[in-house]
Structures are given as C-alpha cells and as structure tokens.
Design brief:
Structural class: alpha+beta
Shape: globular
CATH topology of the largest domain: Trna Endonuclease, Chain: A, domain 1
Number of domains: 2
Number of helices: 3
Length: 227
C-alpha cells in the first residue's frame, strides 16, 4: 500500500482525538489524525511525523497524519484505514476465487468475505475481520489501545459464523517493523480479551500479519497463525 504524496513534519500537540498541531516547513498546521486511538506512547511533542495531502479543497484540514517515528527509532503507520487496504492487496495474491470487502453478516459488516474451492471440489466460505495494531510494549504488539465495543461485537459475529460453518479469521496487521505477534490488551479492555479467548476456543484462526513500514506506505511481509 502506497500514498500518492507524503510530507515530513514535527508533532506539537493533539488537542483532541481528531486533530493535531504539526510543524511543516516552519509553519504550524492543524492536521487530521487518521487514528482515533490514544497513541500516547507515539505522539510525543517533538517527534517526527509523516503526513499526506489528499488535495480536497472542501476539507477543513489540508493534511492527514499517517505515520510517526517512536523514540526508539521505529516508524509506525497509524492510519486506521490502511490495514484493510493492505490486506485487500495481500488477499489478491492468495488463492481465493471470490473476495468481497465490507460483507454484511448478522448485525455487523465484516471486513472480508472470501470463497475458495479445494482440490476435492468443496466450497469453503471464509470471513475475516481485520484489526490494525499500533501499540507495542517491549517488542510485543497489543490490541486495542482504547476500549472497542465494536471490536468485541465483531468477534462475537465471527464465533457465530464459525458455528454456521464458515472458516473465520481475526487478522492483526502489525503496523511497525520488528513485531511478529499480538496479544489482547486486557488492561485497556478486559472484555476484548475474553472475546478473543472465546473465539480461539470456538475454532477461529488468529492471524498475525507483520509489515515493513516506510513513510510512503507499508507491505505485509509474512502471515503467521497463532501458535
């Protein structure tokens, strides 16, 4: 996944979860933050950030903040829309006959529905929910970094789909280099950890998708099932 244009800046402050103040070429700009999570360990005054300029004259902000370099030197993509885009590109390289984004199942819209016919001619229907991981602690990825009732709801739908005969996957796009595994961040949202464990017990696949991140975008470099 690649951005069409990218600009370097210096983070100043985040007045609320939607906007930030960033210095770009010596000027202070109010920019849109493409992640409503907390990101407190990333967005520290003075840190290096990267932005895109979508070029929409009707927008209130010219730039979107999409990446930040942590004080460890590691670059994090924090664009919450990017995981689905990079997963779609990755799925198109896999052996699926059908790939449908934003698939309605139950009372939720699941990120991807796929179909594949195996060598015996059996049709397999597959649902995949995608989460972007931007929280790293001591080399381990964690999700979520803020409570997510929507995330719990989607896991419950996957459990039901598994009972209805679908193959189901909860996939974590790891939006930084050097991390290969994600754990539920129960300190932030205990219920998410409970739902995660119930999904595993029901037979859902937990998939980790490590990435290589650059300012201009990022790519999935491996797919690792939960051990």
């Amino acid at each position: 996944m690649r951005y069409s244009n990218i600009y370097k800046g210096k983070f100043i402050s985040r007045p609320n979860r939607f906007i930030a103040e960033v210095e770009i070429d010596g000027e202070v700009e109010v920019v849109h933050v493409k992640n409503t999570g907390r990101c407190k360990e990333l967005l520290i005054p003075g840190c290096e950030v990267w932005l895109t300029a979508p070029g929409n004259p009707n927008r209130k902000t010219k730039y979107d903040l999409v990446a930040v370099r942590k004080n460890t030197g590691v670059l994090f993509n924090i664009d919450s829309q990017a995981p689905n885009k990079v997963v779609k590109e990755w799925l198109e390289t896999q052996e699926y006959d059908v790939i449908k984004p934003e698939y309605t199942y139950g009372k939720s819209r699941i990120d991807f529905y796929m179909e594949r016919t195996d060598s015996q001619g059996v049709l397999h229907k597959h649902l995949m929910e995608v989460k972007g991981c931007t929280l790293e602690i001591d080399g381990m990825g964690y999700f979520p970094d803020a409570p997510t009732e929507r995330g719990v709801k989607h896991i419950r739908e996957l459990i039901q789909a598994k009972q209805d005969g679908y193959d189901v996957t909860l996939a974590f796009v790891i939006q930084m280099d050097g991390v290969t595994e994600v754990k539920p961040h129960v300190a932030t949202h205990p219920e998410f950890g409970v739902a995660w464990n119930e999904a595993v017990e029901a037979g859902a696949e937990i998939l980790f998708l490590p990435c290589h991140v650059e300012p201009e975008g990022f790519d999935i470099i491996a797919d690792l099932a939960r051990r």
